[in-house]
Amino acid sequence: NTVDLRLCMLLGVVCGVFGAGFNNLNVYVNQKFRKPYINERNWTKFTEICIITVVVSLLFFTVPYLLAGVLFECQTLQTHKDIESTLFTNLGCPKEEEYNPLAHLVFSGLEDQVKMLFRQQSESGVDFGSTMASFTTTFCFFLLFTGLAVFIAGSHVATGLFIPLIVAGAALGRSFGFCSILLSPEGSSLI
Q: Is pTM, for the whole model, over 0.90?
């Protein structure tokens, strides 16, 4: 369908601009901030690692907590097995049988994040389409995850960039898919 083709071409342009922006911002952070201020002394390298740890922890807990009920609604768990699962967290949700989709995505490991963002359903039958509740959930995750990746890459923490950039691209692509459903009058097959 031509609408999907146009949206895919637009996604290619958006991802290209995102990649160039990511690289430029990362180079800027490393050359203008890390090189003159952090890399000069050993104690500043250790201090940077401590600050990164605190900032990432604070953001991963506070952003999903503060945005629950504001930008997206908490989702109801479907089965008793889901309620007992540690994968779902009700951080910021008023009811015990609800979970926060952004916290669910943030607290999953990188491998689980890739699976949730690329697949519609897991091997165990969990519907990732309902888990990834909306455009706002995946786009907030994209902004949070990518923003942190820009500043962590190049630090003295061995993190790598391959899988984190796959996760960031998957979050952007899933967000774009949700957006295409809203824009396409006859529905879209992108998601």
A: no
